[in-house]
Amino acid sequence: MADVRAAVTRAHHEEWARIVATLTRRCGDLDLAEEAAAEASATAVERWPAEGVPPNPGAWLTTTAHRKAIDRIRRENKRDGKHQEAQTLWDDPAVPAEPPGAIEDDRLRLLFTCCHPALAMPARVALTLRMVGGLTVPEIARAFLVTETTLGQRITRAKAKIKAARIPYRIPAAEDLPARVTGVLAVLYLVFNEGYLATGPGTDPVRRDLTAEAIRLTRLIRTLLPEDGEAAGLLALMLLAEARRTTRVSASGELVTLDEQDRGSWDTTLIAEGHRLVRERLTAAAAGIAPGRYQILAAINAVHTSARDARDTDWAQILALYDQLLPLDPSPVVALNRAIAVAELDGPEVALASVDRLADRLAGYHAYHATRADLLRRLGRSQESRAAYDRAIDLAGNTAEIAYLTRRRDQLG
């Protein structure tokens, strides 16, 4: 039974975006596509324990979702005396022509639809995580630090706006791509981060399905816009983080921090590709093209992954890169990460002063309290460190991270 449940969960995660995207292309209705995909997964939960897991779970879910969509359309159209929409799903009409050179991919079309500039950024992110990433409303709400009701309303309003504004389900024309890609990259970065450090209760601490899908879609964006530096920078950033994925959680389910990871087990192919992309962007910077946020973050990760041992890390270079990043992204999270580099160069006391200045803006952010806890521990202020660890544990949503923070707190004695 446990194996069947695991198969349902795996198939849902792997096939959700493909099913929703295909149904959206065929029927032009995000609500219908989402509901049909959800009903197909629910049917699998009911039938697979008795009938067994089908040889091709994805095809089974797709076929079932199509039938659910057809049934729903027929029920609604019967009341209206219309039947054309249900026939549309059977006929699978050709998709309207894409701009010349566009990539044929249903999920990429869905991504641009969810990230349309007519939608507010929070709505774009929430809708993409739901429709493309397949996250549940509670998982997204936890990531956004909002209530499930608020998040659900945000998604509902976004879908209603897409329908009311007749936002097209297609990849934008070439001349429109540069203006549209910034919002898409921001969403893909958040999808990747949710997979890299999953926040949902009961989910794996690292969700390979989300990181892989974010990387796949970012590669497509880079193919569409090969000269876009930020697309290359984001891809490099994702690859360098993904290269460390298998070393980030121990066999006991505890987060393994960067300085403690087995660097010999990192994926050298991904690191080589990430470093190559970073070097390309450094060449562009030398030619006078200023790097963007993702390019600088990728460069920071390149410095980390260049060190054969954590003790060989070039913290001065990392600090210089953070100083370059802050004017572009003056967020408290960037300032917090910069303080970690300061701690390595100037000591924990100097870094703690910088961190404490962020208290008002990061009081609800678990990494802020975890960073304070570590700095206080290094300064021998154990009681204060324990209190900071307690707060970080309360706020953290990742099971592996909670296990790590708990062990560090308990080591204080």
Automatic annotation (TrEMBL):
InterPro entries, per database record: DUF6596 (IPR046531), RNA_pol_sigma70_r2 (IPR007627), RNA_pol_sigma70_r4_t2 (IPR013249), RNA_pol_sigma_r2 (IPR013325), RNA_pol_sigma_r3/r4-like (IPR013324), TPR-like_helical_dom_sf (IPR011990), WH-like_DNA-bd_sf (IPR036388)
GO biological process: DNA-templated transcription initiation
Residue intervals of the RNA polymerase sigma-70 region domain: 18-78
Residue ranges of every copy of the DUF6596 domain listed in the record: 180-280
One Pfam family linked to the record: DUF6596
Ranges of residues in domain RNA polymerase sigma factor 70 region 4 type: 112-162
SUPFAM superfamilies on file: Sigma2 domain of RNA polymerase sigma factors (SSF88946), Sigma3 and sigma4 domains of RNA polymerase sigma factors (SSF88659), TPR-like (SSF48452)
Keyword vocabulary terms for this entry: Sigma factor, Transcription, Transcription regulation
Keyword Hydrolase: no
MF-aspect GO terms: DNA binding; sigma factor activity
Similarity annotation: Belongs to the sigma-70 factor family. ECF subfamily.
PANTHER family documented for this protein: BLL6612 PROTEIN, BLL6612 PROTEIN-RELATED
Protein name per UniProt: RNA polymerase ECF family sigma subunit
Organism of derivation: Prauserella shujinwangii
